[in-house]
Amino acid sequence: MLFTEFRFFFFFAVVFCTYWMLPTNRQRKVLLLIGSYIFYAAWNWKFLILIIASTIVDFLIGLKLGALGSSRKDSGSGDLSGKVLDYAESDLAHTRFRRAMWISLSVCWNLGVLFFFKYFNFGIDSAQHLLTWLGLHPSLHTLNIILPVGISFFTFQSMSYSIDIYRGTLEPCENLLDFSTFIGFFPQLFSGPIVRAIDFLPQLKQPRRLDQVRGRAMVMMFLLGYIKKACIADNLAPFVDDYFANPAHYNWLGCWTAVLFYAAQIYCDFSGYTDMAIASAGLLGFEFCQNFDFPYFSPNIAEFWRRWHMSLSSWLRDYLYIPLGGNRGSRLFQHRNLFLTMLLGGLWHGAAWTFVIWGALHGSGLIVHREFRRLTKPAVKSVATSGFSVATVAGAALTFLWVALTWIFFRAPGFKPAIQTVRSFVLFRSPGSADFGTRCLVAFAILVVIHWVAYRRWLHAWWTRVPAWQFAAFCGVLLASALPWTPLRYQPFIYFQF
Amino acid sequence: MSTLPATLDRPVDSGAAADRSALKRIVRQVVIAAIAFVLTAAIWEALAARLHARPEVPEPFKSKIDLCLDTPGVNTIFIGSSRYFHGIDPAMFDAQTARDGVATHSFNLGFDALDFHELRFVVGHVLDDPRSKNLKYLVIEPSLRVRLAPGLEHSQRAIALHDAAGSQAVAELILKGNHDWKRKLYWLYQQASVSAIRLANVGVMTNRYIRPQEPPADVRELGGPGGNGYSGLDPDKLLGPRPTVQSDIDRMMADQKASETSGEARELNDFEVAQLADLQQRAATHGVKLILLAPPTAAPEVYGEFSAVARSKQPVPMLSFADPITYFDLYDPKGFVDPDHISKPVAEKLSLKAADAFSALIRSEKLHRNTGLRPVPATSDPASRNSQKSQRSTQGPEAPVTGKDQRGNP
Known about the structure:
Helix content of chain B: 40-55%
Distance between the termini of chain A: 17 Å
Distance between the termini of chain B: 92 Å
Shape of chain B: globular
Structural class of chain B: alpha/beta
Helix content of chain A: over 70%
Order of helices and strands of chain A: HHHHHHHHHHHHHHHHHHHH
Largest sheet of chain B: 5 strands, parallel
Strand content of chain A: under 5%
Number of helices of chain B: 15
Shape of chain A: globular
Oligomer: heterodimer
């Protein structure tokens, strides 16, 4: 069930009305849980078992970790309060060991599930290639494994929950219903945003109020998300698909069109999905964090990663980059941390070497940018204070081109088409002669202008100022005017494959 | 352990009433939005018509109809589903009718998964086209089902035919047709989703201005190797599970026997009979004779209701080969590529038998016109049908049941 399908509108209308009519918070949460499981089962009911298993494992581990106290208390600076007072020194060591064991179990379980479903065949294939290259000819068998939709998201969510309890930044959830709803909540189940327990569980505890819901903003966000996904991303997809099916067939103009279209497609696809997810949750009274903030207008690559898929970026920062050492240590050590984080971030997106390359390119870009900033700090400062300037525009253009170039590895079905495309994109040379026509570039320019208008917030929130009936009528007109520009066949969201 | 307030079971109480009143306000706004939506959709519909954003005849119908009507001398057209497309060879049919003394030049206008709503559209379009002025016989598949095949829900051909009038016609066929409630529910759901797509104008401008959603029809593929609309299926290429064919045939024979002895076969109701009569009337006004022809199938539900009452109630003459008892030679499991489709060798046999039956029917009608003898359909009484059947089975498989006069003359 996709957010752009008619049946989702029907499903959501039923859930929305029933949810707000139920008298107790508990009943509402039961409804959300059942609704979420139905939502997932509409894709494949068998994998509900996996979600339920993940939920139970991390719920129990959370309770165990909670019972053993937090690491902050253990390593605390002489504040011997609470449970710690009850333990002798030897007991403390034993407790630390047990806590380490439980958190390892959680991490192993979550990464194990992720590895098995997502990376097992990739690992086998890679091993086979490596051994063949070394002159050995092993016959390793891959398994016919279906990748459960949303696995990368819900495993990260449940893993971060356990880690937060281990670190002492979160109290364990003592109610299985709450925890199951947190893991399975349907708006973010398939493709995020990656919601933190610390943000979401308190919202589940407190009954939501319909009159406190920012209804207009949420409805508008959903409709704009729908338009981004269905009217823009899905219409660009066939051009991109055609190009990457046979890059050698196209000239450099065709290549540029396809690469620019893919940059627009993936942004509209994923940010459109996120908008619809945030709006769906918002209409049920839950606030999610922002996931995109006009990333293509970022003046540099570091800023890009602060604005693109923000829930993943912050997750990688908190649970990977900082544990690796973060900004501590020598410059080389910091660069290593940054590079490794991006490399693993790339691998998180998909089980293929092209994703690793994509991550490596971004890691390299971040390191270069960091060094550039270090060397030109005074000059950059003056640019930053001057606001909108030639340097900012040039920085944004350069950043966008770099990001677009890296998307080639993200999208290409293999190395060969990726290299072919990069060559064509950078050198303006290609063996092919076909292109998509200059009108496609005009269409891209129009998209940029629309995006710029949204970025400058020229039309921001005007709908909050009109009477309710006018807003309702406007929504009806907007949806009816968007549908004729929606392709007939539903295109799955790009991030579903991750 | 938890420091969060334990509000788990606390009623929302004071908030619940406020929520319900807010919900009422939202429902009012949704109604306003729905009205605005419908009005805007109507404007887009009008706009799409002015811009010719929708095809008048959707593909693949247009290409194949053009191919058929542009073929000189065609006077007989077969219109049906893939059972026709892969089952009747016009070349063999014409050769056999010529031997039987009836001159035909036929074309196979079969389309994969053609349902009755689409069939009615194709028939109407062929009849209304001035290029069909030489048409004398229209042979159509006897199935009143309007079930959409999987994958066609978003096809241009389905959507184009689900405008307001089309949606109403389809709903009528489902609701008034003699189907069980499960089928009605499922088919209604299927068709309603296509109607929703059509009436909300989904994709109409995309198709027109950005990129067509479907590739243009391949005329060579539709025309088949002979260019006459027929495409035989290689017996070695299985499309579906052949192992089930034998059991399907056995089940079909058992059903057939059971229905004939008990008389419990599902019948066409008056509404369905009226639909056929309407088609017949429409053809007659163009001077075209309408004939039903049921190819062999191992799926008993396809022509079930027709087989049982073909000889008595429905108004159009019918040539039925969906009869494994009489046409056992067409029902060799090895001749099926899946339970619903016959292979090329069987299609050739069927074409010859269909030609004989067709010629017999035409000759009998001519006899009727010359002598005044009425070709009376066989009785619907099961006992009488059984006696006819046993008579036929002693003579071996020949002309099908309909089209014989009272004296048994073909």
